[in-house]
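Progress note, project year one: complex with carboxymethyl coenzyme *A.
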Amino acid sequence: MEKITKGRRMSEDFLDDEKLLQATEVQSLGNFIKRFTINPKHKRKNSMESGMYISKEAVDKRNKKLAPKVPESKEKCKLVLPDGTEVELSILEGTLGPKMIDVRDLYAKTGMFTFDPGYTASGSCVSAITYIDGGKGQLLYRGYKIEDLAANCTFIESCFLLLYGELPTAAELSDFEERVKDEMLVHEKLKDFFKGFNPKAHPMAIMCSVIGALSSFYHEDLDIEDPKQRERVAIQLIAKFPTLAAFSFRTSMGLPMVYPRRDLSYIENFLHMMFSDPMDTEAVIEPVMTEALDKILLLHADHEQNASTSTVRIAGSSKANPFACISAGIASLWGPAHGGANQACIEMLQEIGETENIPKYIEKAKDKNDPFRIMGFGHRVYKNFDPRATVMAKMCKKVVETMDTRNQEMLSIALELEKIALEDEYFIKRKLYPNVDFYSGIVLQELSIPTNMFTVIFALARTIGWVCQWKEMMSEDVLKIGRPRQLYVGETCREFVSIHDR
Ligand code: CMC
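Model obtained:
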């Protein structure tokens, strides 16, 4: 086997690391197999031929650029305490977005903390990955508008962008795609896990467990302080997630598991592993399915410091195993107020059933004594429109028109519900607009993805965002464990009462 000594690949070549090679369980299974097999069709150019060599210095420079720094404060503000004392606080300014008051030394200066449940006004980190302007309805990945990326890029291209900070050249992209394919196989032992689940288990329950279980394969030899190994974790996660997600679906259906194929793209592989008919090997996947799923994944790839991403960061801040941290993110995403909204939205549209019933449900949503909410409506950050929803709405219409008319009625209900809600004073006043999940559920249903797999698809997409945010956090100079404060309103200190006297 070729040992690389002159340089390093753009996306790290782990074959150059003897220590990693010796540890079978941390070795890429795809790469391992390729050492013994030859397929001229899939022969990968070596690093020299593909122009993938960049110097170690260039890799270090890129990693340095990817590690964000807290900007220096150029402005101050004053806080006046009830006793009249004035406390000076620094103001921080990023490249985009509102300025922030730096309260890191507030306790030292005042003996007080800030109170902000749900972090509605608090920054928890510096980041250079994704930016949202909720007022303008803008979402940027590494500075590129989501609309431009959705129109011109594939999901896997956006993964490269999020991971390395720049759009790939054609050679870099094909190298990256191969690297991901090398990691798509999972250890056969992992398949045994699937036998233990309740046949009716929700696929998100399975995903929390099996992604967490990857930590049992990648722990002892994993050094999370090493940027090269962090990069490898990122590639392993985006590569293995579709395989495990498809395994969880096939288990729930009682169907045989299907392995990834080197000749298929990332999205095609996922659809192949999900829907392959063991009795019809010639069946092909509709191109519109591949396009729609690619779009859904790209639109959901990252979204700043949302609940699941913050969960991953908090879990990772204790330097926990990254596969376990991503499992924590999956758990957080599952709820209907977050990633579970796409499933909840379809269930709501089914419950509404007919356009005549819409006014009744609008009234229910407005009634404060009724817990019902219009699912797929509203967003913590977007207060004008969700740019992902605009792209998704177009894709939704295309899919419904191309595939069949099965969901035509559901789309009509959704469009009518959107129209009525957008004209209603309640929704206007609260700036409630359709979010991406208002339409993504209809698309997924049209693609024959079962409802309980919707949130798994969201998790599959968000894995790149989670792992990039984890990587970014790990690359910071000073990594602080996440540890919020509380406003205690319980009993004050009291005397213990013995069990006989209670
Ligand atoms: N239907 C009816 N009323 C709503 C809705 C809704 N979907 N969303 C918010 N409101 C009302 C809410 O009752 C409140 O009214 P009031 O001021 O009179 O008490 C006001 O609007 C503000 O709501 P909030 O819950 O304080 O806002 P938030 O920023 O904390 O919550 C949200 C954002 C997304 C959790 C919420 O809008 C919601 O529950 N939406 C439905 C679930 C959903 O679609 N989630 C997917 C979000 S996009 C995917 C993702 O990125 O995770």
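Residues 1-26 have pLDDT under 50 and may be disordered.
The longest strand covers residues 86-92.
No further modelling is planned for this target in the current period.
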